[in-house]
Structure prediction request, 321 residues.
Amino acid sequence: MDKENTQPDISIIVPMYNEEENVADFYKRLKSTLNTINMSYEVICVDDGSSDKTLEKLLELRNIDENVKIINFSRNFGKEIALTAGIDYSIGSAVIPIDADLQDPPEVIIELINKWKEGYDMVYAVRKNRHEQESWLKQVMSNVFYKLSQKIMYINMPPHTGDFRLMDKSVVDSLKALRERNRFMKGLFAFVGFKQAQIEFESQPRNKGKTKWNYLKLFNFAIEGITSFSSVPLRLITYAGFFIALLSLAYASYIVVKTLIYGTHVSGYPSLITIILFLGAIQLVSVGVLGEYIGRIYNEVKQRPIYIIRREYGFDNNSNK
Prediction:
């Protein structure tokens, strides 16, 4: 893809899906922050197949600010893919992903940049008041996921950290080389490594509109992360198989000895049904875990494009820049 010849200092990446209510407020605060840092910038807004007027609002911004660039997907591909496209198109010396709902305050960008200037390749923002805005169930799910990920994943993924961070161009170049179709970006950020630092910030309530995440999506997202960066679930199936085999052997030995001593009689129907149901459940879970991994292999070998762009605004190869 062609890029503009002048490389900006900072690339801001903003994935958007049905965020028409937040576009103006977000841009106002982002612009106010960027005007204070005395650095050149580009704002890459990725419209993830929105069904509202998000694209129209972005085009209005593009008409008043040439630093705003727009990628319009052909359909909804999901936030992880939208973030990937923004990274692919970014050309800044540093890249900062941020959401448009203003839960991640644009003013924190100044702290990220200051920490980057100290020599860090990646500076990630940790929400220190996250649980004040979440239900108890979401808190439990979040804590379980992060504790589990720290134990079974082969990457060090900081807890309570989202996509809001600053990445040096060296980090971004490494991310661009990772072309897997199943994208778990927080895991990929941790995978590439580099010299990292953190800052803490006060997360804000969503500005307007409703969140696109529900419990089922969050659960599926957690499964995506675990299966993308850990083979422990497959190993647990092996362990479970050996353990159940040992139990079966022990129980069979018990039955043989009991029969030799006391003879045979018809009994044990409830325990037999219980064992059958238990083993059936184990088999279904095992098939499900295997299916998750096989499904990912299936998606990778098809080699379909990660995303499809309907139109671009603000890039060299677009007549509407």
Notes: The chain has a mean pLDDT of 79. Residues 10-230+306-313 form a domain with the Spore Coat Polysaccharide Biosynthesis Protein SpsA; Chain A fold (CATH 3.90.550.10).
